[in-house]
Amino acid sequence: MKTFSLKPSLVVNYENRIMRFMGKSINHKLLFKDEYGESITLSESEFYSLFDARKITIDENQPHLGVTPFVRNVAPDLTCFPKKHQVVAVRRKRYLDALKARCDKFPNRKTLNKLLPEIAKELADEKKVPSAITVRRWHYKGLNNSIVALIPQHAKKGRATVFTPELEDLLLDVLNTTYFKPEAIPVKQVYEEFIRRTREYNSDKLPSRQLKYISESTVRRYIKSLDPFEVEVNKNGRHAAEKKFSKSVGQLTVNNILDRWEIDHTPLDVMIVDPVTGNVIGRPFLTVVLDRYSRMVMGYWIHFSAPNTESVLRVIERAISPKTTWLAKYPKVINEWPARGLPLRIVPDNAAEFHANNLITAFTEMGIEIMFPRSRGPQMKGAVERFFRTLNMGLIHTLPGTTFSNVKDRGDYKPEKHACLTMKSLESALVKWIVDIYHQSPHKGLASKTPMAVWKAMEPSRVIQMPSDLDALETALSHRKFVTVQPYGIQLSNNFYHSDELASLRLKLAKEQKVQMRYRDEMGHIWVHDPFRNIFFEVPAKDKRLIGTSRDIYKDAVKKAKSENAKLVDREAIQEAYHQIREGIDEALRSNKQTVRREAAKQQAVIDERSANKVPLKVALNSFRPPLLENNNEESPSMFPVHSFSAAEV
C-alpha cells in the first residue's frame, strides 16, 4: 500500500489555496504557509480529518519536491500488539467463529443469550461469559474477518487535555523565554514563572474569562510530550540536536582501493617520556591516512607540534610512497605493508592546514580531488574516526602511561606515574600493531575480511599510479614561492642558494622575471623551475652547514641571535645560536615543567628526523627531466611524473 508522508515542502490544496508544509512545531502542530506567507496551524488529527473529508488534497505537481513523497507500508499483524491484547483478540475471535459455525447468519439477542453460555463451556473460558451486546459489538468490528480489528483500543484512552489555546500559548511563551536555554533550568522554576504569568493574565479578566491554574505535574507531562528534537534545537542549537538524534539514511559507496582516502589528526591518549632524563614530555599527535575501501592504513605521522601543513605534507608523502625500505627499520614486524599509490580523492576535515594554498595546489597537480566535508561533520569521514577508536581500544589504552579517553575510565590511575614509553618505543609498537594486528584482523565493515585480504584481492583490478621519481614527489608536496634570481642566487629566510645551473637560467630570464621556487622544512636545498625546459632542478645552499637543519628551529635561532645582538647579526652568530638551541633542548628535556619538555621534544624530533635523512649534497648537481602531466597553466607548472603499473609488475 502507498501513502504520502508529511515531508517539508509538501504542497496541498486547502480552501482553494495552495499551502506548503513547513514542518512541525515543538508541540507537534503542523505548520502550513500559502503563497502570500499567511500561515495556518493544524494538529495531525485535524489535518487527516480534513483530508478524509476531501477538504485537503495533495497537489499533483509538487513544485518543490518534484514528486509526491510516497511511502510503502503494510498493515500491522497480531504480533505488533502487546501479549495480553493478543490473548483478548484471540478469545473474541474464538467466540465469533463458534457462533458462525452454529448459525448461518448472526443471531439475535435472545438466541445469543442462549448460545453464549454453551460456547463459553465448550471453549473452557474461565472468564465471565460475555453479554450479547458485547458480542454484537465484536461482530461489527470483525466484519472483514480481521483479528487485528478485535484488538482492545486501550491506546486511544487517556486524559482529556486541560489546555485551552490561550493557556497553551502562554505556556509556550514561558518555555521560550525561560526553559529553552543552554543552561539546565529546572521545571519547577518554569512552573513558578508560568503560575506568575497566569496570575498576571487573570488580574484584569472577568472570572468567566480567566485561565485555569494547572498543576506542576501537568506542565511536566506537557514538556515531556514535546518533540525532543525541537526541544534540543531550541536549547542547544541545530548542530547539537542533529548530533544527539543523528540519522544515517544513505550509504557511502566506494568501488575500489585508492578511490577515497580519509585523513585526520588526534592527540594520542598516552604520555611519552624523554629517553635520557625519563621525564614526562606529554601526549603526541597522530596523523593518519586511511583507505576507505580496504580500511588499510596508508600512512601515519607522530609529532608533538600542533597539526599543520607540514605534518599533512609529510604524511601524504609517506602514504603515497612504498613502505618496504622504511619498514626495514622495524625488524620485529612480520608481515608486509603493500599500501602505496596515488588516490583519486582525499577527504580531510575543515581545519586550516587542509585549506592551505600549497596543499591544494599540490593535490591538484597530482590529480587528487579534495572533498571537504560540511562543517562539524566528522561522520563524513567515519572510517578514520572509527580507526582511532579501534587504535585506542586495541593498543593505546593498554600501554603504560595511558590517559584513557575520559576521567571516568581513568579512575585512580596516574598516567604520569606509570609513563615509561619513549617516542621511538611508541612508534615501534604502533607499526607492529598496524601491520601485524590491525591489517590482519577481520573487519566488520569488510564482511569479516581483513584489510590486507581486501587490498590483495583488489590489487589486480586497480592500476596503481606511482611517481617515477621520489624527488618529484618531494617537490610536489612542498611550499611554493615566486622569486627573482639575483647574481648571488636566491635568498630565502636570509639564506642563499646558488648553483651553476641557476646562474645559466638567470642569463635566459627577462629582467625582473620571476621563477617558481619550492622548499620544505629541510634547509639544505631548494627546487627551482626552469620555464624553458619545464623542469625543476635542485639548488643547494651556499652554506653546507644548513644541510639537515630544520627551518623552524633555524628561525628560533635567528630570533635568539637578534635578541643577543640587535645591531649586528652575522651567520656565525646564527650558527652558534642554533647549537645553543640544540644544547638547550637537552637542558629543557630535564626541566620540571611539562610544557618546556614537550616543546623541547618537538624540536628534538625534528633534529632526529633530519639527521636520519641527511644526504650529502654535491656542489654540481644533475638536473632531472621527468615526464610531465598535461598542464596549460604557465604560472603554476606541473612537474609531477606518473608511472602506471599493475600489481603483477610490482
How would you describe what is shown here?
There is one protein chain. The strands form seven sheets. A five-stranded antiparallel beta sheet has the order 5-4-3-2-6, with helices on one face. A hairpin with a 5-residue loop joins strand 11 and strand 12. It has 22 helices and 22 strands. It has five domains: 2-72, Roll (SH3 type barrels), CATH 2.30.30; 78-156, no CATH class; 165-244, no CATH class; 261-466, Ribonuclease H-like superfamily/Ribonuclease H (Nucleotidyltransferase, domain 5), CATH 3.30.420; 551-612, no CATH class.
Describe, in short, the structure shown:
Helices cover about 40% and strands about 15% of the residues.
* Rg measurement, Å: 37 Å
Number of domains: 5
CATH-derived architecture of the largest domain: 2-Layer Sandwich
Strand content: 5-15%
Q: Tally of extended strands?
A: 22
Strand order of the largest sheet: 5-4-3-2-6
Q: Portion of residues in helices?
A: 25-40%
Mean pLDDT: 82
The biggest sheet amounts to: 5 strands, antiparallel
Shape: elongated
Work out the helix count.
22
Note the gap between the termini: 56 Å
Write the CATH homologous superfamily of the largest domain. Ribonuclease H-like superfamily/Ribonuclease H
Which class of secondary structure composition applies to the elements? alpha+beta
CATH class descriptor of the largest domain = Alpha Beta
CATH fold annotation of the largest domain: Nucleotidyltransferase, domain 5
Taking pLDDT < 50 over at least 5 consecutive residues as the criterion, the unreliable ranges are: 614-650
